[in-house]
Amino acid sequence: MNKDQVKGVTEKVKGKVTETIGRATGHRKQEVKGDVQQAAGETRKKAGDVKEAVKDTTRKPV
């Protein structure tokens, strides 16, 4: 796992917490902010997945 994957997952979790708090308190703006954080985290995780796949394919076999 590379740093982009870790940061992406972390951002998704923070977004889920923010969304849940917003939903529980009826604060629509906070709920939307959580949704945006989750989307950003997913994007970053996918970028990390791509980097990892490229790294795996460029390694020379032993």
TrEMBL record:
Q: Which domain of life is it from?
A: Bacteria
According to the entry, every stretch annotated as the CsbD-like domain falls at 4-56
Question: What organism is listed for this UniProt entry?
Answer: Paraburkholderia translucens
- Pfam families the record matches: CsbD
Q: What is this protein called?
A: CsbD family protein
Q: Disordered: where is this region?
A: 17-62
Which regions are flagged for Basic and acidic residues bias?
42-62
Q: Which family does it belong to?
A: Belongs to the UPF0337 (CsbD) family.
